[in-house]
Amino acid sequence: MADLTLFNSLTRSLEAFAPIHPGEARVYSCGPTVYNYQHVGNMRAYVFADTLGRALSFKGYKLTHVVNITDVGHLTSDADAGDDKMEKAAASLGKSAWDIARHYQEAFEADLARLNVRKLAHPRATEYVEAMIEWAKAIEAKHCYRLDGGLYFDVSTVPEYGRLARASTDEGESRIDSVEGKRHAADFAIWRATPPGESRQMEWDSPWGRGAPGWHIECSVMSAELLGHPFDIHTGGIDHREIHHPNEIAQNQAHACGPDTGARIWMHNNFLVDRRGKMSKSTGEFLTLQSLVDRGYHPLAYRLMCLQAHYRSELEFTWEGLGAALVRLKRMVMAVEKLKADMAVSKQPEGSFPLSEQELALFDDAISADLATPEVLTALEGVLSNKKMPAAKRIQLVRIADDLLGLNLLELTRGDLRIDPADAPIAQDEIDRLIARRKQARAEKDFAASDAIRDELAAKGVEVMDGDALGWEWKL
After folding, report:
1. What pTM did the predictor assign?
2. How far is Cα 449 from Cα 443, in angstroms, rounded to an integer?
3. pLDDT-based confidence at 78, cuts 50/70/90?
């Protein structure tokens, strides 16, 4: 097998993966703040993290992968002033912050399942508040100072603050609101005290007053508690590279009293963008995975759309692009269905033909080159179209490729990929009934009846696709 090389945002270079603990890979991925549904841009980060985990498993490592749930501490921006996202959502919806967190965590986990992201434990930040307080107490004397608003971290106390972002001024600091009394613009809250006369639904006693932890401290504490410091890989969206992850590193260095950045490799996926710019919840209008399903697109078409681009490249979202990904997925599903039928005829079970190193390298070389999923897809399609290779061997290679890609190709059917849009004027069962009648009419050369049925379907938004190369017969 080829060496697995990954792009380390900290060094801005490709590095061979060398686990800290032999035979193990320990990965921490920044999870969602569960105050709302996740938009599809958010979900790109978890398709990427899942692909990384699959690659590490493929390479034979025992994987421990943590995706945390932020249910406290994350403010409505990267500022150190303003409302906690959970408290704000609870107030606007008239529910408890705990109920809000539970509901949106369940929705997030359901979306992960629909995207065939492998199941992981999702520890909540509120389960680690006492550990966060102890961590803050340990670093306070050398690295923090108190203000009326709580406990703040002095970024000048650690070497090379902002090295990950490669910017300790301008863009990064411009996203941080000024708080009276802060020593430096980039200093950030470790603990946010509840203002006098106010109360929060989520608050705890601490040496700095009753209040709640800042956002950044949770990931330092949870990664240390669950993976140990140092660990192998930390992932997140590229927006975390500018403020959140540099602040994590600063806390980690402070707690270790040395250069330990927490993770050895820091990896970031790029943005999903649409024509209006980076996809964000801040406008109040954003696409969820359910939005795509309501338009008739299978969730795995979105996963494929993500895999078609390298994780470090910006990916533009368009409905045309999603439609093209769905067609590509249909072609692969149909090719696998045919392979299964060919295997049944030949009676040669999977594994009948040993795989050569060259055949395994079709996928290994691509995934080893910083998770080059577009090349894995191309190699997979080459296998599917290779009629000289026995069906049993091709199925075996498909299984290996799909273990990396997570498209569920050996389980999906044509019927699974046909989803009624939420506003469809006609149900699939009715369409299938009319299509069957039309086939019968055509077989009997009753072309008037055939045309009448075609017109009836067209009036209800159904396009009959005679001669379609994929054999899908109709579309809405």
Report:
1. 0.90
2. 11
3. low
Measured distance CA(117)–CA(126) in Å, rounded: 24
Q: Among candidates 276, 348, 355, 352, which has minimal Cα distance to 317?
A: 276
- Three-state SS annotation for 232-261: EEEEEEHHHHCCHHHHHHHHHHHHHCCCCC
Please report which confidence band the pLDDT of residue 169 belongs to, taking 50, 70 and 90 as the band edges. very low
Q: What is the DSSP string of 289-344?
A: HHHHHHTT--HHHHHHHHHTS-TTS-EE--HHHHHHHHHHHHHHHHHHHHHHHHHH
Type of residue at 233: I
Residue type, 353: F
122 contact partners, CB below 8 Å, separation of at least 6: 31, 67, 68, 69, 105, 109
Q: Which residue has the tokens 């209800």?
A: 460
DSSP-assigned letter for residue 78: S
Compare 208 and 448 and report the one with higher pLDDT: 208
Q: Which residue type sits at 127?
A: E
In total, the chain counts a number of residues equal to 476
Structure tokens at 114: 């629909």
Rounded to whole angstroms, what are the CA distances from 28 to 25, 121, 222, 265, 351? Answer: 10, 11, 9, 11, 35
Residues near 188 by beta carbon (within 8 Å), at least 6 away in sequence = 80, 152, 153, 155, 176, 214, 216, 243, 247
| β pairing state of 231-237 and 24-29 | parallel
